[in-house]
Amino acid sequence: SFSVLKLDRPWAETPFMLQGFRVRTAEDLRLLTEYCGHVYVDASNPRELPAGLRGERVALDEHGEVL
Questions:
Q1: Looking at residues 57-64, what average pLDDT do you find?
Q2: Fewer CB atoms < 10 Å away: N or C end of the chain?
Protein backbone atom coordinates (compact mmCIF):
# COMPACT_ATOMS: atom_id res chain seq x y z
CA SER A 1 0.00 0.00 0.00
CA PHE A 2 1.03 3.62 -0.44
CA SER A 3 -0.30 7.05 0.53
CA VAL A 4 -1.91 9.45 -1.89
CA LEU A 5 -1.25 13.03 -0.82
CA LYS A 6 -2.80 15.08 -3.61
CA LEU A 7 -5.07 14.56 -6.61
CA ASP A 8 -5.12 16.29 -9.98
CA ARG A 9 -8.58 17.66 -9.12
CA PRO A 10 -10.41 18.90 -6.02
CA TRP A 11 -11.07 16.16 -3.47
CA ALA A 12 -14.76 17.19 -3.35
CA GLU A 13 -15.14 16.05 -6.99
CA THR A 14 -14.18 12.48 -6.05
CA PRO A 15 -15.62 9.75 -3.80
CA PHE A 16 -12.60 9.90 -1.47
CA MET A 17 -13.70 10.93 2.00
CA LEU A 18 -10.42 12.35 3.26
CA GLN A 19 -7.63 14.39 1.82
CA GLY A 20 -4.76 11.95 1.84
CA PHE A 21 -5.43 8.23 2.16
CA ARG A 22 -3.71 4.87 1.80
CA VAL A 23 -4.27 2.83 -1.34
CA ARG A 24 -4.79 -0.72 -0.10
CA THR A 25 -7.11 -2.49 -2.52
CA ALA A 26 -7.70 -3.00 -6.22
CA GLU A 27 -10.92 -1.01 -5.78
CA ASP A 28 -8.91 1.97 -4.46
CA LEU A 29 -6.74 1.81 -7.58
CA ARG A 30 -9.77 1.45 -9.85
CA LEU A 31 -11.37 4.56 -8.37
CA LEU A 32 -8.14 6.53 -8.69
CA THR A 33 -7.84 5.66 -12.36
CA GLU A 34 -11.51 6.45 -12.94
CA TYR A 35 -11.38 9.90 -11.38
CA CYS A 36 -7.76 11.02 -11.80
CA GLY A 37 -5.24 11.33 -14.57
CA HIS A 38 -2.44 11.50 -12.01
CA VAL A 39 -1.93 11.69 -8.26
CA TYR A 40 0.89 12.66 -5.93
CA VAL A 41 2.11 9.95 -3.59
CA ASP A 42 4.20 9.95 -0.44
CA ALA A 43 7.64 8.75 -1.50
CA SER A 44 9.24 9.06 1.94
CA ASN A 45 9.27 5.26 2.24
CA PRO A 46 10.08 4.00 -1.27
CA ARG A 47 9.68 0.36 -0.23
CA GLU A 48 5.92 0.96 0.08
CA LEU A 49 5.62 2.10 -3.54
CA PRO A 50 4.92 -0.26 -6.44
CA ALA A 51 8.01 -1.11 -8.50
CA GLY A 52 8.94 1.79 -10.74
CA LEU A 53 7.45 4.56 -8.58
CA ARG A 54 10.69 5.93 -7.25
CA GLY A 55 10.91 9.66 -7.90
CA GLU A 56 9.37 9.68 -11.34
CA ARG A 57 5.98 10.48 -12.79
CA VAL A 58 4.50 7.23 -14.02
CA ALA A 59 1.12 5.83 -14.99
CA LEU A 60 -0.42 2.83 -13.25
CA ASP A 61 -2.82 0.30 -14.68
CA GLU A 62 -5.88 -0.93 -12.78
CA HIS A 63 -3.71 -3.42 -10.86
CA GLY A 64 -1.25 -0.78 -9.67
CA GLU A 65 1.42 -1.90 -12.10
CA VAL A 66 3.51 0.73 -13.85
CA LEU A 67 2.54 1.15 -17.50
A1: 61
A2: C
